[in-house]
Amino acid sequence: MSNSAVKKPFNTRAFVSISLFFALLWLVISGMQVGALDGAPATTQAAQFWKAIHHITGAIFALFAIIHIVKNWTVLKNHLKKVSRETVFGILVAVIIGVLGVIGSQF
User: Fold this and answer.
1) Is the pTM value of this prediction over 0.90?
2) Per-residue pLDDT for 56 more than 70?
3) 20, HSE (Cβ side, Cα atoms, 13 Å)
4) What Å distances lie between residue 78 and 75, 89, 93, CA to CA?
5) Is residue 90 helix, strand or coil?
6) Is the pLDDT of residue 51 over 70?
7) Mean pLDDT, residues 37-46
8) How far apart are CA 95 and CA 107, in angstroms?
9) What's the confidence (pLDDT) of residue 58?
10) Which whole-number Å values give the CA distances from 101 to 34, 94, 95, 106, in the listed order?
11) Of residues 9 and 79, which shows the higher confidence score?
12) Quick one: residue 7, left, alpha or beta (phi over 0 = left, psi -120 to 50 = alpha)?
């Protein structure tokens, strides 16, 4: 028997999921820092730094979220086939309320 290791292929779904988690982690940390520096002048280096980190990690999170949905689309479709209409309606209402909340917070 040879003692050579079997090379496993790169698991893209796992990489995307882990990247999504770490992007969320940094998004939360930077959001807390932006909130903590809310009273500080916007021109301070710390405020600018954390706002930049927050914006960049937000974009990275959105990118990995889209990739995550694309990579898991088949699994998601199979899962949604088993879900009742009431659950789908509830999810749709929650998404609409979330979108309206985001839009409303911009004004």
Assistant:
1) no
2) yes
3) 15
4) 5, 17, 21
5) helix
6) yes
7) 78
8) 19
9) 92
10) 20, 10, 10, 9
11) 9
12) beta
